[in-house]
């Protein structure tokens, strides 16, 4: 069972991203503030869930959250500043878009950029520990997958509806055969 809170009396938001390891498309981040009454036994790190389970959880999270937001950093920004900084930028944008300002930020992973005026804590594998980070991981993943399925229609030879732009053998072979699209990332620096 995942934990609801990290702090005692602060309004917490959980943050996570999806798409860091992809070859094309944006990195997508989500920020979620859950109520103290939130309880869902299915909710877990999105990587531990099936696509169907994620799709079942998404409307539950969106309906029951006190506030939630999803934001992106696109492939151009990723190429300009690197994937780590782009992931942090997308998380900051998601926090910016929350209708209610959190008092504390929980971030999946071990790297984050100081968010003005709000303390944070990074937590390695936090999406398997805290409900708010798990909820953010589900929203980031489902929103990004939805984007890549839509983009598949523009570039069907890359099979994004199935691989979501991750570096599968078929995706790499399509790049070899057809070259890169304007949505492909051209740099792979990490920090």
Would you spell out the secondary-structure blueprint of this structure?
Layout: E1 12-18, E2 27-33, H1 51-64, E3 67-73, H2 75-81, H3 83-97, E4 104-108, E5 120-123, H4 131-152, H5 160-163, H6 169-178
Parallel strand pairs: 1-4, 4-5
Antiparallel strand pairs: 1-2, 2-3
Helix pairs in contact: 1-4, 2-3
Could you characterize what this model shows?
A 5-stranded mixed sheet has the order 3-2-1-4-5, sandwiched between helices. The N and C termini lie far apart (34 Å). The longest helix has 22 residues, at 131-152. α1 packs across α4 (131-152). With 191 residues, the protein is of the alpha/beta class. The chain is globular, with a radius of gyration of 16 Å. 38% of the residues lie in helices and 16% in strands. It has 6 helices and 5 strands; from the N terminus they run ββαβααββααα. The protein has a single domain (12-149), classed as Nucleotidyltransferase, domain 5 (2-Layer Sandwich). The mean pLDDT is 94.
Strand content: 15-25%
Distance between the termini: 34 Å
Q: Structural class, from secondary structure content?
A: alpha/beta
Q: Largest sheet, order of strands side by side?
A: 3-2-1-4-5
Task: Report the principal-axis shape.
Answer: globular
- The number of E-state strands comes to 5
Largest sheet: 5 strands, mixed
Task: Provide the descriptors you would attach to this structure in a database record.
5 strands; alpha/beta; 38% helix; Nucleotidyltransferase, domain 5; 191 residues
């Amino acid at each position: 069972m995942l934990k609801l809170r990290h702090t005692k009396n602060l309004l917490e938001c959980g943050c996570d991203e999806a798409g860091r390891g992809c070859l094309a498309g944006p990195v997508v981040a989500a920020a979620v503030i859950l109520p103290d009454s939130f309880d869902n036994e299915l909710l877990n790190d999105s990587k531990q869930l099936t696509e169907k389970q994620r799709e079942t959880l998404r409307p539950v999270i969106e309906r029951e959250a006190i506030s939630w937001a999803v934001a992106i950093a696109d492939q151009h920004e990723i190429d300009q500043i690197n994937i780590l900084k782009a992931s942090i930028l997308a998380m900051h944008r998601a926090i910016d878009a929350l209708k209610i300002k959190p008092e504390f930020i929980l971030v999946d992973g071990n790297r984050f950029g100081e968010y003005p005026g709000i303390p944070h804590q990074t937590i390695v594998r936090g999406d398997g520990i805290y409900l708010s980070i798990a909820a953010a991981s589900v929203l980031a993943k489902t929103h990004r997958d939805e984007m890549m399925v839509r983009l598949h229609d523009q570039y069907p030879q890359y099979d994004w509806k199935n691989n979501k732009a991750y570096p599968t053998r078929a995706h790499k072979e399509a790049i070899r055969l057809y070259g890169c699209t304007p949505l492909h990332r051209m740099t792979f620096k990490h920090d």
